[in-house]
Amino acid sequence: MQQTKQFPKGFLWGGAIAANQVEGAWNIDGKGLSVADIDTYKPKASNKDYNAHVATNLEGIKKAMEDPTDTWYPKRRGIDFYHRYKEDLAMFAEMGFKTLRISIAWSRVFPTGEELEANSEGIKFYHNLFKEMKRLGIEPIVTLSHYEMPLALSVKYNGWVDRQVIDYFVRFANVCFDEFGQYVKYWLTFNEIDSIHRHPFKTAGVIEEKSVAGEEIQDVYQALHHQFVASALVTKDAHEKIPEVMVGCMLTKLMTYPLTCAPQDVELTMKKNLENNFYADVQVKGEYPRLIECHLKNKGIHIAMEPDDRHILKENTVDFLTFSYYMSMAESGDSEAERTPGNTVLGVKNPYLPETDWGWQIDPQGLKISLIDLYDRYQVPMMIVENGMGAMDTISSDGKIHDDYRIDYFRAHFKQMKEAIDEGVDLIGYTSWAPIDLVSAGTSQMSKRYGFIYVDADDEGNGSYDRMKKDSFDWYQNIIRTNGAALFDE
Ligand code: BGP
Questions:
Q1: Which of 216, 386, 460, 490 is catalytic?
Q2: Is the pLDDT of residue 171 over 50?
Q3: In 162-215, which ranges are continuous DSSP H helix?
Q4: Domain segments of the chain: what residues?
Q5: What are the φ and ψ backbone dihedral angles of 56, each rounded to 5 degrees?
Q6: Is 386 labeled as catalytic in the residue annotation?
Q7: Which of 103, 190, 324, when mutated, tests ligand 1's pocket best, judged by the most ligand atoms within 8 Å of its CB?
Q8: Tens of pLDDT along 433-454?
Q9: Is 12-488 assigned to CATH 3.20.20.80?
C-alpha cells in the first residue's frame, strides 16, 4: 500500500502543560497550597546528580507552609500563565495547535480538598480559559491530577494512603465534569500514575515519615490502589455525564533495553518493562496482572481492598491510552555498569545513544518501539501527551534563539511516529512537552527549557516574563500546517 506523507486526517497536533508549572498565582483568588507549591529549586550545579525526590519531611513541609514568599519555590511563580493565558493561547493558535493539554489545579478549585463547595474564583478562571480555547478552535485535553494535590490532604491523611481521599477526588472530578464537560471531551485521570514509586509525595502526597517503619512501600502500593479505584470511579462518572467523552490513563513510558544479550540482562529488562506496563494493565484491562499480584505476595505486600474494588476496576476501564516519552535506558546485571539520569530514573547508559544536557538519552526509535509495543499489548487508541527536550537555550547576538537541536529532536521523533502509524498503530494525537518554557517538574528550574516559545525568566524568578518565538516555533507551525508532510520535504 502506498503511504502518504501526511499523518492521519484529524491528527491532534499540539502541546502539553501542567497548572503547577505554569499558572503561578499560588496564593490569590482563594487558591490553597498544593504539594507543588512547596517543591524547592534544585540548583544548576546539581544537574548531573539530579534526584527527583523533593524534601518531604514534616519539618520541611511546616517551614514551607509558613514561608509567605516564592523565593525557594519556583512553582509558586510558574510563568504567570494565570494572567497571561490569552497571550499564550494566541501564540499556540498561531502555531496551528489543534489541541492543548492542560491540568486543572485541584487546590484552585478545592483549596484544602475537603470543602463542600468549589471555590468560585477557581471555577471562573477555568471557564475563561476553556472559552478562549474554544474561540481559538483548540481542543482541550485535561488532566485531573498532575502532581498538584492540595497539601492539606497530604498533611492530614498522608495523601492517597487514606481511602477517604478517593471521595474528595471524586467530588473534585465531578465538579470539573459538571462545569467544564461542555468544553472538554478528552480527560486524563492521573498524570504518570506509575511515578508514585519514584516520588510518592509529588504524585500522591505520601509523607514517608508518617509510615510505620518498614511499611513505606506497602503504603505506597495502598495509595496507588486508591488512585486506581478513584480513576475507575471518575471514568464511570464522566461516561455517564459527558456525551462522546474519552477518558484516558497516562503512563511514563520508560523503554528499557538489555545492555547485552546475556540472559540475565534480558530477564532483568523484561521484568522492568513488565513493571512499567502494570499501571496501564490495570487501567486498560481492568485488573491487576497475575504476575504483579504474585510479586507483591512474595514481597509480603498486602493491598487492602473493599469487596467491590475489583468489580469497579473491571467495569470502568479507560477509552484510550496516553503516555510520556522522553528517553530510553538500558538494564544490566552488572552493578558496575555506568548509569545516567533519565526522567526521574537512573538507568544504565546505552553506548549507542546521545544525551541531553541533563543526561537523558535521546532515542527516537525507542518511541516507535514503544508505540508498537503498547499498541500490540492494549489495542486501544493512543496519544503521546508528553515528549520533548530540556535544554539550556541561549539568546544569540542577533537577539534570536536558534534551537536547531530541539528541531532535530522533534523531527527524528515525528518520523518514527509516522513509521509506527504506517505499520498500523492507532495514534490519534501528539502534544509536545512543553510548547512554552515552564518550571521543571523535577528540578524546578526555568533554565531547563522545553518550549517553542522562550520565557524571559531565570531560575530565581528575575526577568520580564515576556514571551519570544524560538526558531522551532516556525518549524513546528509548518509541521502542523502540512499535517506532518513537511518532515519529508526538508
Ligand atoms: C514528566 C512530567 C512533566 C514534565 C516532564 C519533564 O514526567 O509529567 O510535568 O515536567 O516530565 O520533566 P522535567 O520537568 O523534570 O524536565
A1: 386
A2: yes
A3: 164-180, 200-204
A4: 12-488
A5: -125, 25
A6: yes
A7: 324
A8: 999 999 999 989 999 999 999 9
A9: yes
Q: What angle do CA 482, 326, 376 make, to 5 degrees?
A: 80
| Distance separating alpha carbons of residues 187 and 196, to the nearest angstrom | 20
Can you tell me the distance from the alpha carbon of 184 to that of 201, in angstroms, rounded to the nearest whole number? 29
Tell me if 42 CB under 6 Å of ligand 1: no
Asked if residue 343 has its Cβ within 6 Å of ligand 1, the reply is yes
What is the Cα–Cα distance from 284 to 473, expressed in whole angstroms? 35
- 333 pLDDT higher than 60: yes
What's the mean pLDDT when you consider all of the chain? Answer: 95
147-159 pLDDT, tens digit each: 999 999 999 999 9
| Catalytic residue flag (residue 208) | no
Here the cell at position 465 is 516574563
Say if CB 112 and CB 154 are below 8 A apart.
Answer: no
Q: Can you tell me the distance from the alpha carbon of 201 to that of 266, in angstroms, rounded to the nearest whole number?
A: 32
Query: What CA–CA distance (Å, rounded) separates 223 from 217?
Result: 10
Q: Whole-angstrom Cα distance, residue 438 to residue 98?
A: 21
Kindly state the cell numbers that stand for 360. 537523558
